[in-house]
Amino acid sequence: MLITGGAGGLGGAVVAAFAAEGWRVVAPVRRAGAEVAGAETVVADLTDAGAVAAAAALAAGDAAAPLRAVVCAAG
Q: What are the strands of the beta sheet with 2-4, ordered from one edge?
């Protein structure tokens, strides 16, 4: 699962809910070192198509936990 805005209030609640159900969650963040509880983070500027593609590739890159959903909770 890829959740944009996962570091925010609503996005953090969505990450927590899916992580609690056993989903593998990837959350793009704006700066290196930022963490989102329950998610793998990837630094990505969501206005940059290449960065978005890299985040999606990370989310889809685990054959044992394929990308099955995207939640857009970013601004």
A: 40-43, 26-29, 2-4, 70-72
Q: Check residue 65 and report its DSSP letter.
A: S
Question: How many Å apart are CA 46 and CA 22, to the nearest integer?
Answer: 26
Say what the pTM is.
0.91
pLDDT in tens, 21-61: 999 999 999 999 999 999 999 999 999 999 999 999 999 99
C-alpha separations of 8 from 31, 36, 50, 66, 68 in Å: 14, 9, 23, 24, 22
| Longest CA–CA separation in the chain, Å | 31
